[in-house]
Amino acid sequence: MIIPPRSPSEGCGGGDPEWVASLDILESAALRTLYASSRQFACATNRSEILDLLVHGVYALTGMPNAIFASTSTSERLRRTAEFHLPAGAHTEIELAPHIVAMLDVRGALVADERSPEWATLATSMCTSGPWLILPVTIPPQPHALLIVAHTKGPLASTQHAALLNLVSDACRALDRIARAEAIWHDTNLSHSNRILAAVNAVTDIGLLYSNVIDQMLNAILNQILNALNLAAGAILLYNDESEDLEVASALVSSQHGQHSDLITLWQAALLPTSIAEARKAANQGQVLVSSSSDLQGFQCHLGVAQLISVPLLAGGWLTGVLQVVTNDHTSINQYQSQILHILARQTAVAIENARLFAQTRNDQERTSAVVDATNDAILMLDERRRVMIINRRARFFFGIAERELQEKDLDQLSVIFNRIFEDPPRFHGWLRQLLRSPTERVVAEFRIVRPEPRLLQCFSAPVMDVHDRYLGRILVFRDITREREVERMKSEFVSNVSHELRTPLTSIQGALQLVLGPKRTGSEGLPQRARDLLSVSLNNTERLIRLINDILDVAKIEQGRIELRRETLSVDELCRAAAAEMHAFANHRGISIDIDLQPGIPSVLADHDRSTQILINLLSNAIKFSSSGQSVLLSARTDGSMVYFSVRDWGRGIDLANQERIFHKFVQIDSSATRDVGGTGLGLSISKALVEEQGGRIWLESNLGHGSTFSFTLPVAPGISTHGDQIIQEALAVVATRQLHVLVVDDDRYVRPVLVRLLQRHGLRVTNVADGLTALTIIEQARPDVVLLDIKMPGIDGTEVLRRIKENPLTAMTRVIILTANDLGESLQSQVLRLGADGYLEKPITYERLISMVMSPRMPDEDHHEL
Ligand code: ADP
Known about the structure:
By secondary structure, the chain is α+β, with helices and mostly antiparallel strands.
């Protein structure tokens, strides 16, 4: 019965990971056996050595006893020529019955049927009842041979099966080589060059097979040389770069001349001085050196040496070492042997050089991969075919995958694996595929993974080029920034909390000072001048502190991605004029004039009112700060396509090229001594940049040192509303704003409440104030104020509850309620108060202007729920 080779999945639970793992182990064991055997086959110098190696190899692969039976040309039987672990009592011969003859020509593995009577001879030869695995082996010059494996175990795995066939064919090739080499050596008609060629081939084969184990390689080469030239013993001495001398690396007695276990010791102790001296001479002269027995006492007594022949091993002009061989029994080396030795030595030198280079390359490689493995980052490299070429230990840990799951995988297979790891796999795959199309791009991006545990990864990717600038692939370096981000978040949360805590007391200080000094900041008549000056300084510093805190809070918001914009259609004209008006006093104070130049009929922009004003004010205040008295500052706006271009031009000190990019970064001030007297935090431009970009625009700078600067930014043109429409709305708002209002202030803070009351009264409004929610509700129902300024955080019923009740009661539902808060409301609370019907909210510290404009503005329902 013939058993065909089986497919890998047969008889196994396909896809079961345990099975896959065991197959891997099996495969690597089988590969190791194959690899070891093919090396040994290459070094073998005669048939019986190869057959012995084969039966050992078969046992190593299958764990089953086996034997080789070969015919001689004259006999009608197959005779056992090699065996391994055959049970005692086995016969040494098999008769060449027809069914056995039939086996000899069949390629592939066969198994005999143990029940049929003609197999009885085989059973006795193998001393097992069968079945057997039988493979034909070609052993030239004999015509027939069979390898018979006693099939004592279960069925062979397909990998073992394939490995067995490979092993047999390797052995056949080695047997063939021996046969051809023998033919060459024994054919006296053959030219010298053919013989040399055969020996050189053998040495080259060994060099290739053993390049990673130099000691074994030297032994194998030496053995090959001794056998080929029928020499008694030999040694290879290698040049040691450190000691700058020759050292014995291998010493052998030819297998045909018996064993000498202590040869290395002997060579080193008794022969080394002579040997090295001879080797040096040979090396110096660069040619084969033959020394006669009279010079070689040590060799003489131990081995009966006649001659010591030293051949320098030269590769690329460098002395690698020296090959030494000895003849015995009074024989001398002949001219022909000497020539061959010379050529073999050259070949040996090349093999040694290759092995050294190989070892060095491997060392370099190992060192590189050790470095790559030791990093804290996960590293993955895809080659130019987009297959995984490198994956380091950390990547396996990050992604929780075994190396074999990733190694050599292509992009599609990689995608399948990453699908279960990344939070948003399409985003990652899209990013990667786009990068793989670019041979130059270097980028950084962030991705979240959900398995094996949630992590935030920063991924850097760059092309990998060799020294000749050829594209080798793309590297991906993943850094775990989960903790870093967490710390950043905690830090900026802490900064916001502290700033909020500072804002509340500053509000009441600012309010109180504004009250005392009045709208023109000149103070009431009753105050002495000195007191007025001191109070004015206090108010300026309070406002400066508030600006600083606001900047810090803005930066925290930007970093946390919490900038909330309320985009609306804004008139460019008004935006610019309002900003200039706000800067007017400051400019005046510094002796600077502000000019405005707007393109006629410029369209409105779609932008956040307060944030856009903030950008303009920041740029104007910088322009004023860095100009000299008497100069002017020009604010202009024009439209181009879908964008409105704003620019603020000054003729002040200017900014040198090196600093132009930097000043948009946080905390950058070019000359802090110069900025000290004008004040500033170094935050304004970074905030402005974030605010512009968040609104879909960009900001840039043109400047020449000593010749002033122009800061420009863009905002998108508002779709569809004409300037005329804007005007009508504005006019309508102005009519309603002049109506006198009754305002109820509800705030439990006994410092803030009176300040608010006075500020509102100063504006001619009727103001009532209460400290708690319940009283407020009663007053609202009875007195029906137009506007309620409602603090959100109060003991008893809090602001949200008061708001809910106001809006639920049909009698009071139309009352406008503006929420007061010391903190950012936060998204959930903000949407909660808007849902409950709040008409807007004001964050403390509240400026006089903002308070009045909010209270006075007759917001349409749903029109403006936002503050600043
Ligand atoms: P601040 O003005 O609060 O220091 P900014 O971020 O607004 O912070 O500005 C950063 C720095 O850029 C300033 O300190 C100053 O050195 C420089 N700078 C900004 N605007 C101008 C300008 N118009 N002329 C000269 N230098 C300027």
